Amino acid sequence: MEAHTLNPRARLHAFLLLCLCLLAGCGEEGEGGGGAAAATAPAFAYVANSNDNTVSLYTMNATTGQLQHNGYVAAGTNPIAVTVDPSGRFAYVANLFSGNVSAFRINISTGGLTAVAGSPFAASTYPFSVTVDPSGKFVYVANDGSNDISAFTIDTSTGGLTAVAGSPFAAEMMPVSVTVNPSGKFVYVANENSNNISVFTINASTGGLTAVAGSPFAAGTGPESITVDPSGKFAYTANYSSHNVSAFTINALTGTLTAVAGSPFAAGTNPFFVIVDPSGRFVYVTNHTSNDVSAFTINTLTGALTAVAGSPFAAGSVPLCVTVDPSGKFAYVANNGSNDVSAFMINTSTGALAAMDGFPFAAGSGPASVTITGTSN
Predict the structure, then answer these.
(1) What angle do CA 263, 231, 281 make, to 5 degrees?
(2) CA distance 83 to 131
(3) Which residues of the chain have pLDDT under 50?
(4) So what's the pLDDT on residue 41?
(5) Taking a C-beta distance cutoff of 8 angstroms, is the pair 140, 171 a contact?
(6) How big, in percent rounded to 5, are the helix, strand and coil portions of the chain?
(7) What is the three-class DSSP state of 24?
(8) Which of 140, 232, 233, 296 lies at a C-alpha separation of 20 to 30 Å from 52?
């Protein structure tokens, strides 16, 4: 389909899959999203390096936001997304080409990662995004090769994962991003090749998913990422091929989506990832091809977006993922092409970004996702 053909990431997947086909005689495909977790200081950052099959470990200076690199741990093949549970005790990594999820226990003093017993845990075909629900009970994985969502329960003692009954749950074509709203009631999935959003209700006891009435809901062309604001009132998608951001209001009772007046809102070239800051006032979007970050203010009554003065802000080469630390003072971008992390100070009045001293910070090869855990007041 067109979105798949135009997407350089998809073309890279196709090339790698062709290599696999030649070797094994088969074929198919798969921000991540990443979520910041509120825990105790100090703060740590983790970056999934898709080309060298590692996760970079950092400590974060709570005053300056600067990152200190503390080495690597091995993940699976082509780790594409990393997230941390709300307790800050466990990290989960979606491994695109090994079709599984690596689980780690976090040393809350040093930020070090130790593999959980039984890790990695099998997902479906080409897991591309991983998230943890706000209760810390469930993990959801978007599998863009098998067009479905894997659901797991978390052993809160060990961090181990157990597949939910009925998992995986069908989505639309090429689901590449999954998130849970702050109430923990609904799952939202961006389907890149069907240009829409699947919405599910969560069974609070089992973690099972049921499609809501009216799902899927139309988005822009090639939605690569979806996020929900901290209030749970608004959802946003980064639409890769239509170069814009779709905005929706969320029905708090049903989870259904309604387009915001004026949506979609123009972004840079090939927007790839979208996130809302912890205050719920600003939206940040990585632009894959224009190598920058678009910043917007949110109208907290309507959900509409207005570009921040000075936006877009220059990042590194091929920026994929952006995250904001729990304090809302700093933003970080994983630059897949320049093998580093751009870091910015956020003007908490305007949402504008200013390059941090020491920017950029070295990562591994092909950083694809970045997440922050801990508090930095």
Answers:
(1) 60
(2) 6
(3) 1-40, 376
(4) 57
(5) no
(6) 5, 45, 50
(7) helix
(8) 140
CB 279 within 8 Å of CB 346 = no
CB 245 within 8 A of CB 259: no
The residues pairing with 81 across neighbouring beta strands, listed in sequence order, are 94
Cα–Cα nearest to 187, from 123, 112, 250, 243: 250
Upper half-sphere CA count for residue 211 (Cβ side, 13 Å): 15
Domain 2-373 fold: Methylamine Dehydrogenase; Chain H (2.130.10)
Asked if 358 and 69 count as a contact pair (C-beta separation under 8 A), the reply is no
Tokens found for residue 242: 């239509």
**What are phi and psi for residue 151, nearest 5 degrees?**
-125, 135
| Contact criterion met (CB below 8 Å) for 108 and 39 | yes
Residue 153, burial from CB neighbour count under 10 angstroms (0-12, 13-18, 19+): middle
Q: What is the pLDDT of residue 374?
A: 78
Residue 42: what pLDDT? 62
| Block residue for tokens 């009435």 | 213
Q: How far is CA 374 from CA 61, 110, 183, in A?
A: 11, 11, 21
Phi, psi values for residue 49, rounded to 5°: -100, 105
Beta pairing partners, 367 = 49
Query: What pTM, to 2 d.p., does this model score?
Result: 0.90
Task: Tell me the CA end-to-end span of the chain in Å, nearest whole number.
Answer: 46
Residues shown for the chain: 377
The two structure tokens encoding residue 150: 């894997």
Q: Residue 15, SS3?
A: helix
Q: Kindly state the DSSP code that residue 171 receives in the 8-state scheme.
A: -
Which among 304, 318, 324, 316 is positioned nearest to 361, based on CA atoms? Answer: 316
Adjacent-strand bridge partners of 329: none
Q: Collapsing DSSP states into helix, strand and coil, what is residue 111? A: coil
